[in-house]
Amino acid sequence: MLEKLHTPRWAWVLTGSGHFFVESFELIHGLEHCDVFVSKAANEVLRMYKLKLDFPETMRVLHDKTASSVPVGAFYHGIYHTVVVAPATSNTVAKCVLGISDTLATNVFAQAGKCRVPSIVFACDTAPELETMAPHGLVKVYPRRIDLENTEKLKDFERTKVVESLADLKAAIRERHAELKRAEPAGHG
Ligand SMILES: Cc1cc2nc3c(=O)[nH]c(=O)nc-3n(C[C@H](O)[C@H](O)[C@H](O)COP(=O)(O)O)c2cc1C
């Protein structure tokens, strides 16, 4: 199956955060060659927001079904050029900051780091007071000091760009696209 897929490709991690979930989800459709890694919580949140994982054939959807996160083995074969974790829950951010990789989402981030693949992380907890879209409408949330500290700590990670708004996420993806284009061999595409 891998030989039929265009590589290297994007790896997009969806975690179980309602904060800009729908908007992040829509951005995946703008990427041509992408694998979507779905956390167990994201799989539930998807249903609450009535979204379906119906992507074109050039994309694969990978679920969190194994203890060892089998799909991340692909990082060791240069299959991915960029990881996007969007949206990133406070849970996933906290684990990433501590170097924990016991879920598909945290494993993608960890293996990307170990394979020197750059990551863009859209952290949800970026301000002491936020408005977020719950399945039935806007609600106010007040991220704790630990959540805000973890977001800050993630910014110190190698090859990791932490973005704090949808506009910044879009800009980071555009910049990465341009970087990849510049790196293409002359005459390619
Ligand atoms: C509808 C819904 C919305 C949620 N939104 C958020 C959120 O905005 N931020 C967050 O950190 N957790 C949110 N959660 C909680 C996470 O899903 C939960 O912490 C989960 O364990 C995260 O797992 P994951 O990081 O592996 O995806 C939400 C849960 C539900 C049911």
Question: What would your notes on this structure say?
Answer:
It is a single chain. The chain is of the alpha/beta class and 189 residues long. The protein has one domain (6-181): Flavin prenyltransferase-like (Rossmann fold). The chain is 34% helix and 23% strand. It has six helices and eight strands. The protein has helices at residues 21-28, 40-48, 90-98, 104-114, 145-154, 166-183, and strands at 9-14, 34-38, 59-63, 80-88, 119-123, 130-134, 137-141, 160-163. Strands 3-2-1-4-5-8 form a six-stranded parallel beta sheet, with helices on both faces. α3 (90-98) runs parallel beside α4 (104-114) and α3 (90-98) packs across α5 (145-154). The longest helix is centred in the C-terminal third of the chain and has 18 residues, at 166-183. The chain is globular. The model has no long low-confidence stretch (mean pLDDT 94). The structure holds flavin mononucleotide (FMN). Flavin mononucleotide (FMN) is lined by residues 15-19, 39, 41-42, 45, 48, 89-92, 103, 105, 124, 132, 134-135.
